[in-house]
Specification:
14 helices; single chain; mainly alpha; 389 residues
Length: 389
């Protein structure tokens, strides 16, 4: 049962994400099996703690003032300096301390990528949605550290508008395995983001390579972090940095895959789709992983109010929004084994279809993974008019 208008949790429970930063430093200093602490905490222990602590079905007052959320806001802002420290500390440890083998160095950076992907990008996601320019800049920097700055354009201007439609590269299609989804979303997401930004500039009468194109910022910030990796560890440091960036993006897209797998918005004809509803995202009320991922699993409410700060995101009853049986980290691990994933999730998608769209008998039109919309200046000018609501 949902408990309404409670006080939001304090900042301390959400600080469990900071444990990953500490574990990375420990792994870099000690090497060996200590490196396994990072994935163990992020994926195994978090899921076991979910089972132990159960669900959180309380809804904080969505009108809670900014003053009451000052500590939560500070938590999101301190992650960047922590991440800068542990990423480059790991590179220095792997290339200059001499206590790690080459294999250990690679596994260490995989562990770093788990931290920057599972938690760092989640913090970036929270920050880029805020109205404060400084917070958005911190989010941009976190994304640049995993060489994925264009996520801001792809996520805010494309995903939130077109989620659940063929125009959204991020929405995973029914029966689309992760290993087909991953290369598709990498390519289509980047292309769609570039086309959209180019279209915005053409609307202003500017060339697509104008200095105001945010891709210049995305690229230059990433180049700066790569240069720091070169200074910290030479070319080996650059290679290790690229490993963590790839793992981080892999975790990001695993999470994206889980969030909307098989869920679509009803096509109303004439290129129009129904508004986004709570039932267009998979949610999880699991307590610990919601602390770890700063309420990312209250995903339906995030799509309803994208700039709502994470402590006051609302949860929904199962009759309003579909629920998944585990937290996102464990579901992401299952997604890496497509037969197990399909066995777990496809019956839930079919149940969802029967519950929300009993009138649709032919779902073939919703199965094709289309290319992103060719966003011309005129198409972008129509903007949200292509989507109802």
């Amino acid at each position: 049962m949902i408990e309404e208008n409670r006080q939001p949790p304090g900042v301390a429970p959400f600080a469990v994400s900071l444990v990953l930063a500490v574990l990375v430093v420990v792994a870099a200093m000690l090497g060996g099996w200590w490196i396994a602490l990072v994935p163990f905490y992020g994926m195994v222990a978090s899921s076991l703690l979910d089972r132990l602590l159960g669900n959180n079905n309380s809804n904080p007052d969505p009108e809670t003032g900014e003053a009451a959320l000052r500590g939560h806001r500070l938590l999101t802002m301190i992650w960047l300096p922590l991440q800068v420290f542990f990423v480059y500390f790991a590179i220095v440890a792997a290339t200059r301390f001499g206590h790690l083998s080459g294999v250990e160095a690679v596994f260490l950076m995989i562990a770093v990528g788990i931290a920057t992907g599972e938690v760092g990008i989640v913090y970036a996601h929270e920050l880029i949605h805020q109205k404060d320019r400084r917070e958005r800049a911190l989010g941009d920097a976190l994304l640049a550290m995993v060489l994925f700055g264009h996520f801001r354009t792809k996520h805010i201007l494309i995903h939130h508008r077109y989620v659940g439609t063929p125009a959204d590269p991020v929405t995973a299609r029914y029966n689309e395995g992760f290993y087909a989804y991953f290369p598709r979303v990498l390519y289509q997401g980047a292309v769609a983001a570039w086309r959209l930004e180019a279209a915005r500039l053409r609307q202003k009468g500017l060339p697509e390579f104008d200095r105001s194109n945010p891709f210049w910022r995305y690229g230059s910030w990433s180049a700066g972090f790569l240069l720091l990796a070169l200074l910290a560890g030479g070319w080996a440091g650059v290679g290790l940095f690229l490993i963590q960036a790839f793992i981080a993006v892999l975790f990001l897209e695993l999470t994206n895959y889980v969030e909307h797998y098989g869920l679509v918005r009803k096509h109303l004809g004439g290129g129009k789709y129904e508004p986004v509803r709570p039932h267009h995202s998979w949610n999880s009320p699991r307590r610990f992983t919601n602390y770890l991922l700063i309420n990312l699993q209250r995903h339906s409410d995030h799509h309803y109010k994208p700039d709502r700060r994470f402590p006051v995101l609302q949860t929904y009853d199962e009759s309003e929004a579909p629920q998944i049986p585990y937290g996102y980290p464990f579901l992401a691990a299952i997604a890496l084994v497509p037969p197990v994933w399909f066995r777990l999730m496809n019956p839930r998608v079919r149940k969802w279809r029967a519950m929300y769209y009993p009138e649709i008998t032919d779902w073939s039109a919703y199965k094709t993974a289309s290319n992103p919309l060719p966003l011309s200046a005129s198409a972008f000018a129509k903007g949200a008019g292509e989507i109802v609501g």
